[in-house]
Every structure is written in structure tokens, then in C-alpha cells.
Write a structure and sequence with these properties.
Layout lengths: L2 E4 L5 H10 L16 H6 L1 H6 L5 E5 L2 E9 L2 H19 L13 H10 L6 H4 L4 E7 L8 H15 L4 E6 L4 H9 L3 E2 L11 E6 L3 H16 L22 H7 L4 E6 L6 H9 L3 E5 L7 H14 L2 E5 L5 H9 L4 E4 L5 H11 L23 H11 L1 E6 L2 H5 L1 H5 L6 E5 H7 L9 H16 L3 E5 L5 H10 L1 E8 H18 L4
Parallel strand pairs: 4-5, 8-9, 8-15, 9-10, 10-11, 11-12, 12-13, 13-14, 14-15
Antiparallel strand pairs: 1-2, 2-3, 3-4, 5-7, 6-7
Length: 502
């Protein structure tokens, strides 16, 4: 079990160790620095000393294995560093020279940073005043620990009044970039620094209550109400703000996403029922059932409000099938019968906004909680949050799995086991060697291109599902409303029929 807790002074050496052990784009950096404390002096220790209330650690049975550090006010923290932190270090480390040189060692580059710390650009620090650094040792990765640290930390600085947070990451650290995007961060334009500058990300943190009050004030002013606006009773901040794709965030953290199929239920209550069962997402089956678009939209909106991800399995590859339900609140689409690269690219073309695709711009909507954002922000945010799932359901699709996985914009390869086994002439035989080979080929393709793998149709076989998990499956559509009702209903009837009448 991993505990997320507040920093203690005794944790300081662990922070230094973890900072060095992850100092090369997430990898071990102990062989790269002559001074093992140097990188920690810059990226970890100052927060523990100057702002311990915004430091959290992750601890398991082996000790502290991860942390998140930062400050709610970047400008104020930079000023404190200049007075309370850098002077002592400048006496310990000499200034290498006036300008960095290509032949410098990493120790020299880090020493230069101590003497010449960079100041965060105003276009970043003003809208996103908080900043953070997060690092995990390999043993804690892929277990949702990073997501838990991030949620706790963002909630804390939001409560301190920070209206946004930013971070920087090396452009080559694709694993971290996927994680930050899944956490809701969006890439910021930062033209002031040429390559190989880091990639900057930002996340708005205006509490729901504050946004609600601000909207009320603006509405009063538009109506021309005299005098100072009357503040209404504040609405409570939502624990999972509308817009964040819970399932995509879990996938980026290496966790398993369990998705329940919605086949015959027609009311929004099904989203609450799925959440009460512990599912992470629902998929509304529009391919095999008569559910209307209006009904599907209502279920999507209900799911958004309780923090599980609404996904729609659309009826075809027709662009309008997918984009209409996305506009109505779905945070992902499962597109059936994607067998070729051209078909996969067509999915991206219709479901991603430019520059990735050509989805029609419709402004803010349910998936954003109708937040007031510019069209550019909407496009960028929804491109990051929308989960695009290509369903591989034919032998041709399996043959093309690697090429489909390589298509930029496809997030997940999902094997429709029922259709695939039927197409292979072995319907329902999921343990058949040919089906197993298809799972293995798809898992390999997904791994090779940094995509996720999903499986549907495999139910009530924990041993086989465990094999799929070991293979790399992280998205499972394991059952549906109809299946669960039939299973529980039949079992109950069987028990009652066996009961004696007298």
C-alpha cells in the first residue's frame, strides 16, 4: 500500500535521492553528476525548506519513493530563493562563466543555474501562478501514485488561492508529457526560448465556487443591475471538474480502466449505478441497440457530473456518428471495424480539431461544463481529453495493428473479441491459439507506439483476464447492464426455485 502524506523534515535526504535517481528525464542520473546533491539543491530541497506545506511524499513499505514539490506563487517563491536560498549555495559553487558552453558538464550547467536562475515568463506565471515538480522511483510508477499526488497537490494550492499551475518538461520525456496531458494540463505557447527548450504546460485552477460567483456578477452587470452586485450563496467546488477525462488520466498513469456497457438502460441513472459499482467509465452502445442520440447525450451529461468517463460506441465509421455524440458530451468514442490505416486516419480527421484533424468547431459544450473559453483553448483542450479508440474486429485489422497504432491521434487499440472470433470462424473461443496470437500482436503494436490496448467481450474468466493484464491490456469492457441483470436475475430465480414450498 502506498501512502500519500505531508512532508517531514526527516524526508529531506529521500528527496535528494529521488531527484538524482530520476534526474535524467525520469531515469537514473547518478553517473551524470559528480556532486550527488547538486540537482536536488535546485529542484527539490528549496521547496522542502522554504515551502514545506506544499510538499507531499509517497511512501510504501520500502520507504519514500516519490514526491511532488512546488509553490502556489511562483513570483513570490523566486523572490524568496534570491534572498533565502541561492546566496549560501553561491558560496559553495563557483559561477562557471558568463555564458553556458556546449562542452560544460552537467555540474557546471547546474552551478550556472544557481548563479543565474531563470525567471518564469510573465505569460506563464501570471495566468498559471503556481508551479510544481513531481518525481517517482520506478517501483511506484504505473500504480496511480502520480495521479494521487497530483490531485492532492493541485487541490491544496487551489485552496490557497492559486488560479492556475504550470510546469516544464523535457521535450523527449514522452511518458511524462502523456501523464501531464491526462491530468488535464495543456501545452502553452512559449516562443521566447528556442529549442531545445522544455515544453511548458498549464492548468487552470479557478475553483468551481469562484467561477460560479464570477459568472453571477457578470450576469448582473450585463442586466444593468444598479450598485454593487449581490453575491449569491457559493456553490461547492466539484471534486472532479467537468472537462477532465478520468479514464484517460488513469490510462496515462498505467492503471486499469473498467468500462461498463450500456445497452438497454435509458435513463441517466445508469451512470450513477455504474459509478456506485466502481466502474471508471461507461460506453453507450449505439451500434447494436436503438438508443437515441438524445438519450445517449443525457447519459453522457450525467456521467460527467459524477466523474466517470462517458464513451460511445458509435454505429459506424461515418464522421457524423462520432462527432455528434462528442459534441453532446461524450469524452471518447469507440469506432467499430477499423481495419486499415486509411480508416484509422479518417477517424482522427473527423474527431480531432486542427492541426490533428478537421473536426467542426462547435464552441463550448457539455464536455467542458459550458465553460467560457476561446475556440483555440477549446480545440486544444478537447484534443487532449478526447479518447479515440479504434476497434480491431477482423483478421485484416490484426495484420495492420502496428500500422494503425502508428497513426497519430489514435489513443487505444481495442479488440472486439466477439466480432474478431466470429470473423475467424471460431466464434466465442477466446482462448483459441489464433485469438491469443491476435491479442499478443495487438499488445506488441500498442507498446511499440506508446498507445494503450483494450479488450471487450471477455467476461467472467478471471484467469484469462489476468493473462490479458499481464500482456498489457489496460482498458476492459467486461460486462453490460443487460448481462449483469441476466446473470444476477437468473441466479436469484434458480435459488428461489430450489427453495421448498412447504
Amino acid at each position: 500500500m502506498v501512502e500519500i502524506r505531508a512532508f517531514r523534515p526527516a524526508d529531506l535526504e529521500d528527496l535528494y535521492h529521488i531527484c538524482l535517481a530520476t534526474g535524467a528525464g525520469g531515469d537514473e542520473a547518478s553517473t551524470l553528476y559528480l556532486d550527488p546533491k547538486l540537482v536536488g539543491h535546485v529542484y527539490a530541497a528549496p521547496y522542502a525548506v522554504l515551502s514545506p506545506c506544499t510538499v507531499l511524499v509517497a511512501e510504501d513499505s520500502q520507504g519514500v519513493g516519490g514526491y511532488i514539490v512546488g509553490a502556489p506563487d511562483t513570483r513570490g517563491f523566486e523572490a524568496r530563493l534570491e534572498v533565502e536560498w541561492w546566496p549560501d549555495l553561491r558560496r559553495l559553487y563557483r559561477d562557471p562563466s558568463a555564458q553556458p558552453r556546449a562542452d560544460w558538464s552537467l555540474d557546471e550547467f547546474m552551478s550556472y543555474r544557481i548563479h543565474h536562475p531563470s525567471r518564469t515568463a510573465s505569460e506563464i506565471a501570471e495566468p498559471y501562478p503556481a508551479h510544481l515538480h513531481i518525481n517517482l522511483l520506478p517501483r511506484l510508477r504505473g500504480r496511480g501514485v502520480g495521479r494521487r499526488l497530483m490531485e492532492r497537490w493541485l487541490g491544496a494550492v487551489r485552496d490557497m488561492g492559486a488560479r492556475g499551475a504550470h510546469l516544464a518538461v523535457g521535450a523527449a520525456n514522452r511518458r511524462a508529457i502523456r501523464f501531464y496531458r491526462a491530468c488535464g494540463f495543456h501545452q502553452l505557447e512559449h516562443p521566447a526560448r528556442p529549442p531545445p527548450a522544455p515544453v511548458w504546460f498549464g492548468l487552470g485552477l479557478v475553483p468551481a465556487a469562484a467561477a460560479w460567483v464570477e459568472t453571477s456578477i457578470a450576469r448582473d452587470r450585463q442586466r444593468g443591475d444598479a450598485g454593487a452586485p449581490t453575491l449569491r450563496k457559493e456553490a461547492p467546488a466539484m471534486s472532479n471538474p467537468v472537462g477532465e477525462n478520468h479514464a484517460k488520466r488513469q490510462l496515462a498513469a498505467g492503471e486499469l480502466v473498467l468500462c461498463m456497457g450500456v445497452n438497454q438502460m435509458r435513463t441517466p441513472n445508469i451512470a450513477m449505478i455504474a459509478a456506485a459499482c466502481g466502474f471508471d467509465a461507461i460506453y453507450i452502445d449505439l451500434e447494436h441497440n436503438p438508443t437515441s442520440l438524445e438519450t445517449a447525450a443525457a447519459i453522457c451529461v450525467a456521467a460527467l457530473g459524477i466523474g466517470i468517463t462517458p464513451i460511445a460506441r458509435v454505429s459506424s465509421r461515418d464522421a457524423h456518428d462520432a462527432t455528434r455524440i462528442l459534441d453532446c458530451g461524450a469524452q471518447g468514442v469507440m469506432v467499430p471495424h477499423v481495419s486499415t490505416v486509411a480508416e484509422a486516419r479518417a477517424v482522427v480527421e473527423s474527431c480531432r480539431y486542427p492541426p490533428q484533424g478537421h473536426r467542426s468547431a462547435s464552441g463550448s459544450g457539455p464536455a467542458l461544463g459550458y465553460a467560457a473559453r476561446s475556440q483555440g483553448e477549446i480545440n486544444n483542450f478537447l484534443n487532449q481529453q478526447t479518447l479515440l479508440i479504434a476497434m480491431l474486429e477482423t483478421p485484416e485489422a490484426i495484420e495492420n495493428a502496428d500500422a494503425i497504432a502508428a497513426v497519430d491521434g489514435i489513443d487505444l487499440l481495442h479488440i472486439g473479441s466477439s466480432d474478431l472470433s466470429t470473423e475467424m470462424g471460431i466464434p466465442g473461443q477466446y482462448n483459441h491459439a489464433r485469438i491469443r496470437q491476435a491479442y499478443e500482436a495487438t499488445a506488441k503494436a500498442a507498446r511499440a507506439h506508446g498507445k494503450w490496448m483494450g479488450v471487450g467481450g471477455v467476461r467472467e474468466d478471471l484467469e484469462f483476464q489476468t493473462w490479458l493484464l499481464q500482456l498489457g491490456m489496460r482498458y476492459l469492457t467486461g460486462g453490460s447492464d443487460v448481462g449483469y441483470i441476466l446473470s444476477a436475475g437468473r441466479a436469484d430465480v434458480k435459488r428461489l426455485r430450489a427453495a421448498p414450498l412447504s
